[in-house]
Design a protein that fits this description.
The protein has helices at residues 4-7, 24-41, 105-114, 118-123, 134-138, 157-167, 173-176, 217-223, 241-249, 264-273, 283-291; strands at 16-21, 45-50, 127-129, 146-148, 190-193, 234-237, 256-257, 276-278, 298-302, 319-321. The chain is an alpha/beta fold and 348 residues long. The strands form 2 sheets. The chain has a 6-stranded parallel β-sheet with strand order 7-6-5-8-9-10, with helices on both faces.
Length: 348
């Protein structure tokens, strides 16, 4: 239904701000929306990245995929947080507002979100919150000055075509070349994406991560299905592959690390080439779902995260499984995690 706001004449001469946050995969998912918005509205966009917004430090990683005019020269500021300039990519920020107990700006925002008022309040500032909804992406008001607040994964041929074109002669080229329809089929193997990293702080800092680690028994159950018993070779991709291999071995899964190298781009390349891809709740998996050849790669993704949150989007052809999550008593949780530099070379 068209509202008054949707009838307001847009200013197509001014680029729309795409407000991004989070790691490289989150930025890639956001770029899909940015390209889509440009294509359906005939309006240019500019990326305004907030490197500290999530409670960890993630600088802009997708600059190679953007024109200079598509990047806001000054990164977005996070309210009530002052960085010291020595943060390393992926590092949890212990002085970040989301870590503070008691009454704070973040606790107030949490109440506003719970009351479902954030989208309305943002609209008064001509900001359109997507809230991970494909429907809200398709129906964004043309007068909006900015779009952000959770980008949904989706598949669109025209968007992918432009993304591939942007990736030429960049570090993303090889990782995204699988979108090319001329690519031949690869070897039959399984890839398990076991997301660990800052999810190990789920119960230590629930306001930051809060959605838990998938119990590897879920992957064991999927591999035990009759149609999946034929796969003999299993690889694991993870921000902590050695620990992921250990966890998988405890449920009887023998997995090898990525033979191509330990980096996000290498992981995406391996995931998109798999015959069977078993996913954790993660934007890395979400992005691969957006660009994978679903006629060649069968993909399983969790039906909900560790808090019970279900996606407000769907991708036809992706199979949803009912996940279990490791309990807070599991040894994997705690403050022993430090980011592995090998997993963050994309930010160099």
């Amino acid at each position: 239904m068209q509202t008054f706001f949707h009838k307001v004449r847009p200013d197509n001469t001014r680029p729309i701000k795409i407000r991004t946050a989070g790691g490289a995969a989150s930025q890639l998912v956001a770029l899909l929306s940015a390209i889509h918005v440009k294509q359906i509205s005939n309006r240019e966009f500019v990326i305004e990245h907030y490197p500290y917004a999530t409670g960890a430090y993630y600088p802009l990683a997708i600059g190679d995929l953007l024109e200079n005019a598509e990047i806001l020269s000054t990164p977005g500021n996070t309210k009530f947080f002052k960085p010291n300039g020595n943060e390393s990519p992926g590092a949890l920020l212990r002085t970040h507002p989301v870590q503070r107990r008691g009454i704070s700006y973040e606790s107030l925002m949490k109440v506003i979100r719970k009351l479902r008022l954030e989208n309305t309040l943002s609209l008064l500032k001509l900001e359109w919150k997507l809230d991970f909804s494909r429907n809200r992406l398709e129906n964004f008001p043309r007068f909006a000055k900015s779009i952000g607040g959770g980008f949904p994964p989706f598949r669109d041929h025209h968007v992918l075509s432009e993304l591939v074109e942007r990736a030429q002669n960049t570090k993303f080229n090889h990782a995204l070349s699988f979108i090319d329809e001329s690519e031949t089929e690869g070897e039959d193997y399984v890839v398990i994406h076991l997301r660990l990293g800052d999810k190990r702080f789920t119960f230590d800092s629930p306001t930051t991560t809060g959605d838990g680690i998938v119990d590897p028994i879920c992957f064991r159950q999927i591999l035990d299905l009759p149609e999946n018993k034929k796969y003999k070779k299993v690889f694991v991709v993870s921000d902590e592959p050695e620990i992921a291999i250990e966890l998988l071995s405890e449920v009887g899964i023998t997995a090898a690390v990525n033979p191509n190298g330990l980096s996000l781009l290498h992981d995406m390349e391996l995931m998109r080439s798999a015959s069977l891809l078993l996913c954790s709740w993660s934007t890395v998996s979400q992005f691969v779902m957006c660009v994978a050849d679903l006629e060649r790669t069968r993909i399983y993704y969790p039906r909900y995260d560790g808090t019970g949150r279900q996606p407000k989007w769907s991708i036809q052809g992706v199979e949803l499984y009912i996940p279990e999550y490791l309990p807070r008593t599991h040894r994997i949780y705690g403050n022993s995690y430090t980011p592995n530099p090998r997993s963050y070379t994309i930010y160099d």
